[in-house]
Design a protein that fits this description.
84% of the residues lie in helices and 0% in strands. The chain has 12 helices and no strands.
C-alpha cells in the first residue's frame, strides 16, 4: 500500500527526531560509560548492558509479532553481534576507562572510514582520489589526537586511545555487515538479535568480575549511568541509528555522525571538566575534514 504525502511526512519527521535523540544519547555515552566503569567492572558492565538491552528489544519484537530470522540469518546476526557489539564494546568500554570521553568522541568520528574501507574490500564501493585523500587525513587526525593524549595519562591514555581505535574498526564493520540483514528484516529485529548475541559473547569474559563486583556497592550516580547507557543508548540509540540507516541511507546519516562527535566532546568538557587542548581541536578538525572528503 502506498503512503500518502501526510503519512510520508510523519514517517520522515519520526526518523529525523529519532536520529537527533540518538545523537544526544550516543554523544553523551562516553561520559556515562566513564562514570559507570569508575565503580562497576568494565567487562561486567558490557555483558549486563547489552544482554539486558537485547532482551528488552527482543520482548518488543515478540509483542509486535515481527517475523523472527531463520537459522541462516540468525547465525549471521550472531557473527555480526560478536564483532559489532561484543568486541566493539569490550574495546570501547576498556578504552573509555583509560582515556578521556572527549578523546573517545573524536576518535569515534573515524568510524565511517572503516566502513568505507570494508566496503572497498568487499567490492561494494570504488576508490576515488578524494576518498584516498580523506582516508589519509582522517588517520592523520587520529594520530594527532592520540599523540596529544600522551601528555596527560602517559601509557594508560595511549592504551585507552588505541582500544577506542579497535572499537571504531568493529563498529564500522557492524554498519556494513548489517546492511544485508536490514534489507531482509526490520531494524528492531536486527538490533535485538545482534545486541543479545553481543551481550552473550561478553559474558564469559565478565565472570571473573562477578566476585569483585559483590565487594563494592556502586553509588546512585553509577547506577544511573548504567541505566542511561543500557536503556537510552544501547536499547533506543542503536535501534534508532539502524532505523535511520535503513530509512535515509548511510551517507545522509553521516551528518549525524558529525553531531555525535561534537556532543561527545562538549559533554566531556562540560560534565567531566576535561580540557579542550589544541591537539584535540586540530585532530578533530582534521578527522572531520577527512571523513567529509572520503564520503562526499
Amino acid at each position: 500500500m502506498c503512503m500518502s504525502v501526510e503519512e510520508k511526512g510523519r514517517a520522515e519527521w519520526f526518523t529525523e527526531a529519532s536520529l537527533l535523540l540518538a545523537v544526544l544519547f550516543l554523544g553523551t555515552n562516553p561520559v556515562a560509560v566513564k562514570i559507570a566503569v569508575s565503580e562497576v567492572p568494565p567487562l561486567l558492565f558490557v555483558a549486563a548492558r547489552f544482554t539486558l538491552a537485547g532482551l528488552l528489544l527482543l520482548v518488543l519484537v515478540l509483542l509486535l509479532r515481527l517475523e523472527r530470522p531463520g537459522r541462516r540469518d540468525a547465525l549471521s546476526m550472531a557473527a555480526v553481534g560478536l564483532v559489532g557489539v561484543g568486541m566493539n564494546n569490550i574495546a570501547f568500554t576498556l578504552g573509555v576507562s583509560m582515556t578521556t570521553a572527549s578523546d573517545t568522541a573524536l576518535i569515534y568520528a573515524v568510524v565511517p572510514i572503516w566502513g568505507m574501507l570494508l566496503g572497498l574490500a568487499l567490492g561494494l564501493e570504488r576508490p576515488t582520489r578524494w576518498g584516498v585523500v580523506g582516508v589519509a587525513l582522517a588517520f592523520l587526525g587520529v594520530g594527532v589526537v592520540v599523540y596529544g593524549g600522551l601528555g596527560g595519562g602517559g601509557g594508560t591514555t595511549l592504551k585507552g586511545d588505541l582500544l577506542v581505535v579497535v572499537a571504531t574498526v568493529c563498529w564500522g564493520s557492524y554498519a556494513v555487515l548489517s546492511l544485508p540483514l536490514l534489507s531482509r528484516h526490520p531494524p528492531l529485529v536486527v538490533a535485538a538479535y545482534t545486541m543479545l548475541f553481543g551481550g552473550f559473547a561478553a559474558v564469559p569474559f565478565a565472570l571473573p568480575d562477578l566476585v569483585s563486583a559483590g565487594l563494592v556497592e556502586p553509588s546512585r550516580g553509577a547506577w544511573e549511568a548504567v541505566a542511561y547507557s543500557t536503556l537510552l543508548v544501547a536499547a533506543f540509540g542503536f535501534y534508532a541509528w539502524q532505523r535511520g540507516v535503513s530509512q535515509v541511507g548511510a551517507n545522509r546519516v553521516l551528518v549525524y555522525q558529525y553531531l555525535i562527535t561534537l556532543v561527545g566532546v562538549g559533554s566531556g568538557v562540560v560534565m567531566l571538566g576535561e580540557g579542550l587542548t589544541a591537539n584535540k581541536i586540530l585532530g578533530g578538525t582534521i578527522i572531520l575534514g577527512g571523513v567529509y572528503l572520503a564520503r562526499r
